[in-house]
Amino acid sequence: MRLRAAVLAAWLAGAASPVLAHDVAPLPALDYEPPAPGTYTLHRIMAAPDGEVLDLDGRRQRLRTFTRERITLLGFVYTTCVDPEGCPLAYRVFDALRHAVGDMPSLRDTVRLVTLSFDPERDTPAAMRAYAGSRATDRESGVPWHFLTTRSSRALAPLLDGFGQDVRSTRAASNHPLQRELSHVLKVFLIDPAGYVREIYTSTFLHPRIVLNDIETLLREPR
Amino acid sequence: MIAQRLRSAIVTAAALGLAVVLGSGVAAADETCNSPYIAKLIKGQEDYVYVWTLGVEGVGDGSDKLVTIDVHPKSKTYGKVLGSVSVGTRGEAHHMGFTDDRRFIWAGGLAEPKIYVFDIATDPARPKLVKTIADMADKSGYLGPHTYYALPGRMLVQALSNTKDKGGVTGMALYNNKGEFIAAYPMPADGGGDGYGYDLAVNPKKNILLTSSFTGYTNYMRPLGELVKDAEAMKRFGNTMVAWDLKAMKPKKILSVPGAPLEIRWSLNPKDNWAITAAALTSKLWLVKEDQGEWTAREVGTIGDPAKIPLPVDISITRDGKGLWVNTFMDGTTRYFDLSKPEAPRQTYEKVTGKQVNMISQSWDGRRLYITSSLLANWDKGGADNEQFLRAFAWNGKELKPTFEVDFAKEQLGRAHHMKLGSRALKSP
Questions:
Q1: Sign of CA pseudo-dihedral A207, A209, A215, A218
Q2: Domains of chain A (ranges plus CATH)?
Q3: Order of all β-strands in the sheet with B294-302
Q4: Superfamily in which the B2-426 domain is placed by CATH
Q5: Best of B178, B205, B245, B247 to mutate (most A CBs within 10 Å, chain A)
């Protein structure tokens, strides 16, 4: 427990450096003490949907490959998102968790991170590779972080629908077509090893401390 | 007549030393009172007001229905009914709420454990009934779904009653957005709790869920004139609020708030950490606030003359947390309170807006207000006092000026109750 707190505190202070797009500025402290791991229940909200995705090499994969066997934290992003309460926040939290979990032997082999683009038009596998930078190939932390996209809006649609991730395309203030914005509510999904969504975080409570508690709560469930 | 009986009953109860209070049936309505998980707020001019309407036997098809009214001043059909979607039954239609993506409205009635899901995204001008959720009683044992509060990917439904004895002991049912039941959470009935439920509201940054308390089916479905003569029944109203650990969904503290505390409104000002409610039977405003790490409730103001039983029903907070609209049913009055000092609300305006008024909704900018008339089928006034309407007003900071009105009796629609705002801009496939 002490190790976990110390490790998390170090990463919340902002030790990593940005690679591209979204930075990893320090996260604010929680304004309350969250319930301790194992003192609450995370109900099965729904089954995580499956569908075809593309990995960084452009290979077709099934999403279920990335949402089973481990506890998965999955977030939808688009790489040009600039809303500080949106994709950049998810990126910062994922980055903090990658290091915090990676430094905890009890969790390291049980968790994975998945970032899935909902802008297949611009977020090609090559764009996602640039966005991911060294995080996609980092083996030091021991926590896999998969960066995925889809072939088309058509391939993406059932995944958005299945997760309940609402997205609307809007014009940016500049009205430039390349600066099209995707209006969305940030949602990050905690998925158990059996493929059930057990928590859905939004910007109001997406925080590494809460996510870590939830992961530990899942690990304490009788198997 | 009902007003006289009610007044008489309250006086009698007071003489008996009973903490008598009459609750009403109202809940979150407007653009400033939605769940914080709903991001698509309408911050400009709204195009539609959806009105969840109680069916009346012999009026139109007699069924509960969702009525859509055009409220855009530049529209050719401004102030007119665009259409309605009947659910085919009459189940005491009451409240409704948006899903977190604002693509659907969930609505229900207090006489049945059914929830109706309307698609308002495909064509916001023409909502469509797409699903009926009918398993709440089987899954949870609760009856009378009241408040529909969006959580991420889920809907938390506060019920008013239960199927076992149809009393006020009840709980909350959690569904996912597909309408699949997830879990039930009973209201605490010990440790000072009365087990009753009414409204719920969340402050995610404090990890707090607040709930309030009203009464059960056996009371709210009785004719009001008959109910107020029953001293034992009049004791069965809620006198508590509960502060829950939102993450754990466990009660943290039970707060004593006598007199059926109803609607709960958190200040939307990020610097604030308080919510306000009105107790219907005592006509008092209560402030719930975090004080040195403890959630506390205290009486901070009076609405009208409690001796005259104005019966505060719906309240609506301004987006900056500096003002509060309060509707009182019995005297048909709409009041505005200055909340600059939430510990000491001060009434600065009042206007009689109908012979009976219940719900009040405001636009995000606070310039437009909508008021409806119906409380509960058996509690509404009779004869000429039983006006049924939606009335729209413009607020300039000093005065409410009528802009249009829809007569729900003349239009053969029924009893106008809960409202939600809609926009063409929220259309999505």
A1: negative
A2: 2-7+42-166+181-219 (3.40.30.10)
A3: B261-266, B274-279, B284-291, B294-302
A4: YVTN repeat-like/Quinoprotein amine dehydrogenase (2.130.10.10)
A5: B247
Residue B352 near residue B396, CB atoms below 8 Å: no
d(CA B164, CA B305): 38
Q: Which residues of B touch A163 (CB under 8 A)?
A: 153
Q: Angle, nearest 10°, between helix axes A87-102 and A208-219?
A: 50
A87-107 pLDDT, tens digit per residue, is 778 888 998 999 889 888 888
Residues of B in contact with A40 (CB under 8 A): 245, 247-250
Instruction: Inform me whether the C-beta atom of residue A171 falls under 8 Å from chain B C-beta atoms.
Output: no
> How are beta strands B154-162 and B171-176 bridged, if at all?
antiparallel
* Exposure on the CB side of residue A33, measured as CA atoms within 13 A: 4
> Whole-angstrom Cα distance, residue A150 to residue B267?
41
Residues 57 to 96 of A: which have CB under 8 A from any B CB? none
Residues of A in contact with B183 (CB under 8 A): 41, 43
Q: Give the pLDDT confidence of A24-76 residue by residue, as tens digits.
A: 566 778 889 999 999 999 999 999 999 999 999 999 999 999 999 999 999 99
Tell me the C-alpha to C-alpha distance, in Å, between residue B196 and each of B19, B168, B192, B301, B428.
Answer: 16, 5, 12, 24, 38
B122-146, pLDDT tens digit by residue?
999 999 999 999 999 999 999 999 9
Would you report the helix, strand and coil content of chain A in percent, each value rounded to 5? 35, 20, 45
The whole-number pLDDT of residue B113 equals: 87
Nearest residue of chain A to residue B176 (CA atoms): A45
- Residue A6 makes CB contacts below 8 A (sequence gap 6+) with none
The pLDDT assigned to B76 comes to: 98
B207 reaches A (C-beta below 8 A):
yes
Global pTM? 0.91
Q: Which phi and psi (to 5°) does residue B218 adopt?
A: -60, -20
Domain ranges of chain B: 2-426
Interface pTM (ipTM) of the complex? 0.90
Min Cα distance A166 → chain B (Å) is 6
Shortest Cα–Cα distance, A216 to chain B (Å): 14
Q: Do A45 and B182 touch (CB under 8 A)?
A: yes
